[in-house]
Amino acid sequence: MTATKQNIRHLGLEELAKYFERIGEKKFRTKQVYEWIWKKGAQSFEEMTDLSKDLRLKMTENFTMPALSVNATQFSSDGTVKSRFMTFDGHMIEGVLIPTEKRNTACVSSQIGCSLSCKFCATGTMERKRNLDYDEIYNQVALLNQQSEKTFDKKLSNVVFMGMGEPLLNYKNVLKAIDRLIANDGMAMSPKRITVSTAGVSKMIKQLGDDKVRFNLALSLHAADDKKRNQIMPINETNNIAALVEALNYFYDKTKNDITLEYILFKDVNDSQEDAEALIKIYRQIPTHLINVIEYNPISGAKFTKPDEDATQRFTDFLVKHRVNVRVRRSRGKDIDAACGQLANKG
Fold it and tell me: What are 164-205's pLDDT values in tens digits?
């Protein structure tokens, strides 16, 4: 029986060094190959052009290098680029590149599908097939970075885990991917330019605090009382607002990292003055630096609609009047189903 070949991306520097020593290769090969994998974002052994053909063949015989491939790319009229990636085992995930004058942001997925069934989210209608491995998440960012350089002549400046899946239900892989993104021998990104968005897994938010992570956190709140939140986000039944407030305070005490509250406005659901008052109460209980009020993006099968501009303005004006730091986040890439809540492998 043939032994299963190991994914070379899952080898640390020491393990890689031992392999090259075992096959009689020089020490510098370790750094060379490690750079190809992480810094240069190689998709195959063939791309490692400064290695001999013999060595590349030997590595192919000993290891696998499962890579994502770009299955489809769509360009929005506002400059947003959505890519559908295929995994080595035939699953599809989506990642979005959002360019602005000041920054180019990659919105990335952490799972294939999602298990949380949020009522306003297209991904929530999909079954969760599996978690993405940390090297797949990194690979996704690397491909979006290549796209950013090619299309906009600019490297990625920011990464947000706001794509498909719940990042805190793929905790180890997400943290390991971020470790590679911020490593000097990886993408050397600043952790302050990385944001992990969660639907609210209070136990894992506290774990982030215990692990003293250095990246920012965003909570998808979307309703300021438990009854409403239960209806649109079933996760609230086991992670209610009081538990989330406690967890976010714990996280901040341990890390002092930025916390943002995300709040999608739904017409006649969570856009009244009463809702704004309830939101202000939560805002005052958490050391959050910002509330992002997000435009709702329609998805098929959902009963929600977007409030008109006047209602949105009234809501945000009320928050501002009560000294809340608020920003209205306009959706990007709506015409290609690339906006917040729309990722479902269409295209």
Answer: 999 999 999 999 999 999 999 999 999 999 999 999 999 999
Q: Sort strands 158-161 and 111-112 into parallel, antiparallel or unpaired.
A: unpaired
Class of domain 69-336: alpha beta
Query: Would you name the residues annotated as active-site residues?
Result: 94, 340
Bridge pairing between strands 290-294 and 326-329:
parallel
DSSP result, 264-316: E--TTTS-SHHHHHHHHHHHHHTT-SEEEEE-----TT----PPPHHHHHHHH
Residues 6+ apart with CB under 8 A from 306: 265, 266, 267, 295, 296, 297, 298
CA 126/CA 113 separation, integer angstroms: 5
* Distance separating alpha carbons of residues 28 and 273, to the nearest angstrom: 64
pTM of the model: 0.91
Amino acid, res. 85: F
Question: Kind of pairing, strands 92-99 and 81-86?
Answer: antiparallel
Q: Which amino acid is at 209?
A: G
* CATH class assigned to 6-64: mainly alpha
> What value does the CA radius of gyration of the chain take, rounded to a whole number of Å?
22
Tens digits of per-residue pLDDT, 193-251? 999 999 999 999 999 999 999 999 999 999 999 999 999 998 999 999 999 999 999 99
As given in the structure block, the two tokens for residue 99 are 């360019």
Q: What are the phi and psi torsion angles at 79 (to 5°)?
A: 100, -15
Tell me which residue has tokens 């609609």.
305
What are the domain boundaries of the chain? 6-64, 69-336
Taking the C-alpha atoms of residue 202 and residue 132, their distance in angstroms, rounded to an integer, is 21
* pLDDT score of 4: 83
